[in-house]
Specification:
The chain has helices at 6-10, 19-30, 47-52, 86-99, 118-127, 137-140, 154-167, 190-201, 218-223, 252-262, and strands at 2-4, 35-38, 61-64, 69-72, 77-81, 102-107, 110-113, 131-133, 148-151, 171-177, 180-185, 209-212, 226-230, 243-245. By secondary structure, the chain is α/β, with parallel strands linked by helices.
Length: 263
Amino acid sequence: MLVLDLDDTLLTDDHRISDRNREMLIQAQERGVKVVLASGRPTPAMIPFADELELERFGSYIISFNGAVITDMSSRQPIFERSLTKEEIHSLHDFSLKHRVHIITYSKKGIVTESQSEYIDVEKNLTGLPLLQVPSFKAEVTGAAVKCILLDDPDRLKRIEQILKQERQDLSVATSKPFFLEVMPQGIDKAASIDVLAQRLGINQHQIIAVGNAGNDLSMIEYAGLGVWVDNVTPELRDRADYIVASNMDDGVAEVVERFLLN
């Protein structure tokens, strides 16, 4: 199994899969490798990339919302899903007000927020989901949701991350971009969902390669039999993988396929 983060790993800076990466990933699947996309993105924002790589034809899967949902691309139905409760989401909203950071979550209508921010605009543009700015976050969020994101200036968000981890050990917290602090249900991260999928498919942990670039990828990098960073990895994580390949702009994923799978 080859598990790939999307943004800043498989995708170029303008959010495309390069021709070389696509070609190598199709070849890998033709040889029986399960290619799994694992991202903090919502499921709908991952489907076009899954289709481009023909995951449906090869019977593969996507892991979305940072591990909260696993979708079987053959049926396009979730086979695993975990959510934050309404109470957890509301308490995170209280935390965001106390520490003056932006917060978003997701509903069937799209991205839900009370505030405006350039960082929220980044998420809107990345996912292509509608942005629903509401007068009352709590009034709009009346049920469970798969995750929340806290958003702010990167330096300030690092401090917020430490506070949140100390205060809320009942939640899973990870950075996906320097200005995105992702919050999921306890025990949910990319590694946990990869393990669920691997057991379902009868794939051993040592048969898994994971490729990423950021804090929310660390769990899967350390879980996989071979953990690989692309060269544009967050600097402080650079020594936490088994191997480093070329950057997302220089077809690092294709290098992994050629070096470790096709050869």
